[in-house]
Design a protein that fits this description.
Blueprint lengths: L2 E6 L4 H12 L6 E8 L2 E8 L2 H10 L6 E7 L14 E2 L5 E9 L2 H10 L11 H10 L5 H9 L4 E9 L6 E6 L4 E4 L4 E4 L11 E4 L4 E6 L2 E6 L10 E2 L15 H7 L1 H9 L19 H5 L3 E6 L1 H18 L3 E5 H4 L10 E7 L5 H12 L4 E5 L5 H5 L2 E4 L12 H20 L1
Parallel strand pairs: 15-16, 15-17, 17-18, 18-19
Antiparallel strand pairs: 1-4, 1-10, 2-3, 2-4, 5-6, 6-7, 7-8, 8-12, 9-10, 9-11, 11-14, 12-13
Helix pairs in contact: 4-5, 7-13, 9-13
Length: 424
């Protein structure tokens, strides 16, 4: 889990990047860094430890640029050192990449690149991306070099690249971990999570899986990995930017613990008739007849959402009298599950971007079975992929240990139980 921010526009780029990293620091405490392009060259600053170390390094040795990228890291490959901190560069130092996720075949690619004369200076899997793109640069643009490199990489990853040899451009790639593109007036943002850009814009596009965004000051072009144009829907984020701040609490988790009553209220508000007690879940886009035909529910989730699913099993089985299985999404699609014609899949994810849950949901859809989702983030991948779903309306959850999202998920499951019970 790492944090990514990118910016191109008329603002002073370094403060924008640092502010974005501050909003994302909960996603990585091991190291942080930024890279900016100005005057045809890349300037880079990195530090081990917390973001405050990077800020001191920039004060001691300032940099400025026209656009750039930043990253806060939770180490996976390589120790949490300044050398291993992102951004990473190629041999020329003119291509820069930040990365969230895992390149599964990085050792094979690294050996191949070393045999071709590329020099590696870190222990990370990320560095191979910069060298691959360097090798694939053929004068036709950073995005084309990135596409050729993508064909060689295996794994789940979000990448953001810049190059001094293709100025005025940020290339963002998603295969698994989320990427959101923020749209402003003469400026654009790229981030791994909404809070990083919420103080600048509320108009966002969630990059789809296996899609690329080519970002310039004048706008964004969206394509798949093969360069074919894809449609992009701009969404308006309704969260108040203050909701994504600590609001006086020492930690985000503490703040979110105290937000649980309001989050639960917002989740339930308007979904229960005060006169009849009937539940209305209009977002599900599933009819009463379809609900009544359900013979078994399979809840798929990971982590805290999986525990919410266990609560949902108790609620649904007790009152709707429909059998429920709760599976870890990371295991589900690998065990060749037995699925009946009356089965429905219910995916639960706070972010709506949990890679294992998304993969399991897509497997169920591929086999022709109906899917529902419980998510907090509007327009997220799981919410979009499911046949229908229910949003939590719990506001952004920043704390790694889920609190208010769990409470809201349990509230939605209680509503779902009531809806199924009424339909029968």
């Amino acid at each position: 889990m790492c944090g990514i921010i990118g910016y191109i526009g008329s603002k002073d780029v370094v403060p924008v990047l640092i502010d974005g990293l501050r909003k994302l620091e909960y996603r990585g405490y091991d190291s942080a860094g930024i890279a900016v392009v100005a005057g045809g060259a890349v300037a880079l600053r990195r530090s081990a430890g917390k973001l405050s170390n990077l800020e001191r390094a920039i004060v001691a040795d300032p940099i400025a640029g026209d656009y750039g990228v930043g990253h806060t890291r939770w180490a996976t490959h390589g120790r949490p050192t300044e050398e291993n901190a992102h951004p990473h560069r190629d041999c020329t130092g003119r291509i820069v990449v930040v990365h969230n996720g895992i390149i599964e075949n990085y050792l094979d690619l690294k050996r191949e690149l070393q045999q071709q004369g590329h020099r590696f200076v870190t222990e990370t899997d990320t560095e191979i991306v910069a060298h691959l793109v360097e090798r694939e640069m053929r004068g036709d643009g950073l995005e084309h070099a990135a596409r050729r490199a993508l064909m060689l990489m295996r794994g789940l990853f979000a990448l953001v690249l810049i190059s001094a040899d293709d100025p005025g451009k940020i290339v963002a790639v998603r295969k698994g971990p989320p990427i959101v593109v923020g749209l402003g007036d003469g400026e654009c943002f790229v981030a791994s999570d909404i809070p990083a850009i919420l103080s600048h814009t509320r108009d966002v596009v969630f990059l789809g899986d296996e899609e690329m965004a080519v970002v310039t000051r004048s706008g964004v072009t969206f394509t798949d990995f093969f360069g074919r144009p894809v449609s992009a829907t701009t969404q308006r984020v309704l969260w108040d930017p203050i909701m994504a701040e600590k609001a006086g609490y020492k930690h985000f988790m503490l703040k979110e613990i105290f937000e649980q009553p309001a989050a639960a209220r917002d989740t339930i508000l308007g979904r229960i008739s005060q006169d009849t007690g009937r539940v209305f879940l209009e977002e599900m886009t599933i009819t009463d007849a379809q609900l009544a035909a359900i013979e078994r529910v399979t809840i798929l989730a990971c982590g805290t959402s999986w525990h919410a699913g266990l609560v949902g099993k108790f609620l649904i089985e007790q009152l709707a009298r429909v059998p429920v299985e709760v599976d870890l999404a990371s295991e589900y699609r690998y065990r060749d599950p037995i699925i009946g014609p009356g089965d429905v899949l219910l995916a639960i994810s706070q972010s709506g971007e949990t890679a294992d849950t998304l993969a399991a949901l897509r497997e169920m859809k591929r086999k022709g079975h109906p899917t529902l989702a419980i998510c907090n983030v509007v327009g997220s991948s799981i919410a979009t992929a499911a046949d229908g779903g229910i949003y939590l309306h719990a506001g952004p959850e920043i704390g790694v240990a889920s609190t208010k999202a769990f409470t809201s998920q349990c509230g939605v499951l209680a509503l779902l139980r009531s809806e199924e019970d009424t339909s029968e």
